[in-house]
Design a protein that fits this description.
Length: about 230
């Protein structure tokens, strides 16, 4: 299958679904990773233009660990809206990558970039199938399945599926550690060590399903988006 993971910022995918992407890659799936925002606001000292460059390089380094294609940085942080222009950009991302499955944010996650990313993915993945909605790329013949990844700290999120990532947690950590610009930022702004934060959530989800570490998901269950089989590893 072709898998597209769409986060709001560089490092969101690594925090919330990288272990699952590793397992999907191992079973032979083709992986695409995208961050809609550049991550240009996430630092106290580094200015936006320089931070954009740094975070692009960090995202590329992380994606290379699993041989994934990387794209994104279409918008500045806090400058992403469910507008016609943004919808066309995300539609083209979907038409270009032609995914069978899209993994993205839970619509009620903790901040606007995350929730807007989720809504854009939902709307654009439908628009991508419509020939008369003209963008740079040709329409796709099917609506991709959408799977929501966990919320930050798992708050207000009730999983419907789990993936055991116990055997790939070290690769997930390695991918997350590529985002070194965020280690200091998240310590100062949010008071967290992002590796410890990630492992705590993975351990909590693992306890729920009887393994050491797990990632949690919810399938987007609406007409035209449900299949009678499991697509997660």
């Amino acid at each position: 299958m072709r898998i597209l993971a769409v986060g709001a910022h560089p490092d969101d995918i690594e925090l919330l679904c990288a272990g699952t992407l590793v397992k999907m890659k191992k079973r032979g799936d083709e992986i695409f990773m995208a961050h809609l925002c550049s991550g240009d606001k996430g630092h106290y000292e580094i200015k936006p233009a320089e931070l954009t460059r740094i975070r692009k390089e960090e995202a590329e380094k992380s994606a290379s660990i699993i041989g994934a294609e990387i794209d994104g940085g279409f918008f500045g942080d806090f400058e992403i809206f469910n507008s016609p222009d943004a919808r066309k950009k995300v539609t083209d991302l979907i038409r270009r990558t032609r995914p069978d499955v899209i993994i993205t944010h839970f619509p009620d996650d903790y901040m606007m970039d995350h929730s807007t990313t989720s809504r854009l993915v939902i709307d654009a993945s439908f628009a991508a199938t419509t020939p008369n909605y003209v963008t740079r790329y040709e329409f796709i013949p099917h609506m991709p399945l959408i799977i929501f990844m966990d919320s930050l700290a798992g708050l207000n999120f009730s999983p419907t599926e789990y993936v055991d990532i116990s055997d790939v947690i070290d690769i997930k950590v390695k991918m997350l550690l590529c985002h070194q610009s965020q280690y200091k930022w998240l310590k100062e702004h949010d008071g967290i060590d992002y590796v410890e934060f990630m492992k705590t959530l993975a351990s909590f989800r693992g306890q729920q399903c009887g393994v050491k570490y797990a990632e949690a998901f919810r399938t987007y269950r609406v007409w035209g988006r449900v299949v009678p089989r499991r697509v997660l590893p």
